[in-house]
Amino acid sequence: MDELEQLVLTAGGIVVARVIQLKDKPDPRTYIGKGKVEEIKILAGTKNADIVVFDDDLSASQQRHLEDEFNCRVVDRTTLILDIFAQRAHSNEGKLQVELAQLNYLLPRLVGRGVELSRLGGGIGTRGPGETKLEVDRRRIRTRIGSLRSQLKKVAQTRNIQRKHRKKTSVTCVSLVGYTNAGKSTLLSLLTGADVFVEDKLFATLDSTTRRLALPNQQNILISDTVGFIHKLPHHLVAAFKSTLEEVREADLLLHIIDSSHPAMKDQIKAVYKVLDELESLEKPRIEVFNKIDKITSDELTNLKSQFTNGVFISAKDGVNVKELLERIENSIESRHVETTLLIPYNEGGLIARAHSEGIVLKLEYLDDKVKIKAKIPFNILGDFENYIMTEDRKQTTDRLKNHKVRG
Ligand SMILES: Nc1nc2c(ncn2[C@@H]2O[C@H](COP(=O)(O)OP(=O)(O)OP(=O)(O)O)[C@@H](O)[C@H]2O)c(=O)[nH]1
Ligand SMILES: [Mg+2]
User: Fold this and answer.
1) How far is the CA of 159 from the centre of ligand 1 (A)?
2) Atom 14 in ligand 1: which residue has the minimum CA distance?
3) Any atom of ligand 1 within 6 Å of the Cβ of 315
4) Is 224 a pocket residue for ligand 1 (Cβ < 6 Å)?
5) Ligand 1, residues 198, 226, 321: which to mutate, most atoms within 8 A of Cβ?
6) Could you report the per-residue pLDDT of 112-140, keeping only the tens digit for each?
7) In this predicted model, what pLDDT tens digit does every residue of 72-105 receive, in sequence order?
8) Minimal-distance CA residue to ligand 1 atom 9
9) What angle do CA 292, 271, 273 make, to 5 degrees?
10) pTM
């Protein structure tokens, strides 16, 4: 309920009362029980509420029945989140995605209520690119959905080309993921000096930002910030934001940023795992980064460290333990490399250059007609160097590679 209140605040609303009901299963007609409907009706009247917000999703008919009972607007969790997204989408792609998500959510809820909808005033749940569309009929909404889909497809194609280019050059991509408000954008600006939007509200970031980062070992990687995850983020929303979250799927390494000072930290971690699972990214290499340690006591920190022995504990705000984090990133990337010795003839200049740009060169020796390179090469591109692996090193390299595959 605290989170719901924060969502309402983020959307620009003020909470005047909270009601909780414990119930085995929802009432099919009104979601909550009869007594609660009466209670809220009176409360909404005395408090002069404009809107009643539910923390779960309502069916179209439940929403309609409740609006009739309360005589005011009823907004469910998804509508509220979409409204925040609508206010915060800045890029063309973000706007298209939000509109598509809103229309998809609205369409089944439009049955027989075109007139009612057009009478509704502004406010939470009606903003955004979808606003003017509320009055058009379903057929036009469908046409609009089709057009949005094809526009998004084009944007996604451009993105894919960029991504393929990145893959070809095999630059390591790291993605920041985590619950909304955990401090992902703060960490990105700390690491790369990027000027990104940071705010103590939910969903400050909607569009992903990618920046180059030079690690202490001189290796260049790409690091991207993504939209924050949230509890009960509906499937269709995840689908709508798929291309933004595609960054996560394509990443070589995930940094999971956790707000260690949040009372619901463990639930938030679970919610993130759930979304990662939906993105089929739960098996990816991942570092758990516990942020905001400046906000917890030293006892709490000790306790946290004993529970999460593999975590890195930082404060993105104060720049505490950043060196350790960078080392962990380096180690994790290096574990994807296989050490080998290559003998590459000078006429294979392209490969020599790639060993330098994509691998980590340890030792270099110039011979008459070739160059001898001792290097760590990412195991996924080792095949390209196959013909030039030094004979004495061949067996050892194959063994190391096998070892990698076993470890996944
Ligand atoms: N005390 C403290 N506050 C922090 C720290 N890191 C971030 N914050 C604050 O937490 C709030 C959220 O930070 P953001 O970087 O916007 O979080 P985010 O994860 O990008 O959030 P979304 O984009 O909304 O998903 C801001 O008010 C930051 O100033 C930290 O280490 N310590
Ligand atoms: Mg952010």
Assistant:
1) 27
2) 183
3) yes
4) no
5) 198
6) 444 344 434 446 666 555 444 445 567 77
7) 999 999 889 888 888 877 778 778 888 888 888 8
8) 183
9) 95
10) 0.77
**HEC sequence for the chain:** CHHHHHHHHHCCCCCCCCCCCCCCCCECCCECCHHHHHHHHHHHHHCCCCEEECCCCCCHHHHHHHHHHHCCEEECHHHHHHHHHHHHCCCHHHHHHHHHHHHHHHHHHCCCCHHHHHHCCCCCCCCCCCHHHHHCCHHHHHHHHHHHHHHHHHHHHHHHHHHHHHHHHCCEEEEEEEECCCCHHHHHHHHHCCCCCCCCCCCCCCCCEEEEEECCCCCEEEEEECCCECCCCCHHHHHHCHHHHHHHHHCCEEEEEEECCCCCHHHHHHHHHHHHHHCCCCCCCEEEEEECHHHCCHHHHHHHHHHCCCCEECECCCCECHHHHHHHHHHHHHCCEEEEEEEEECCCHHHHHHHHHHCEEEEEEECCCEEEEEEEEEHHHHHHHHHHECHHHHHHHHHHHHHHHHHC
Q: Decide: 198 in ligand 1 pocket, CB within 6 A.
A: yes
- pLDDT over 90, % of the chain: 43
Two structure tokens written together for 33 = 């029980």
C-alpha 225 – ligand 1 centre gap (Å): 12
Task: Please work out whether the CB of residue 292 comes within 6 Å of at least one atom of ligand 1.
Answer: yes
Helix (H, G, I), strand (E, B) or coil at 337: strand
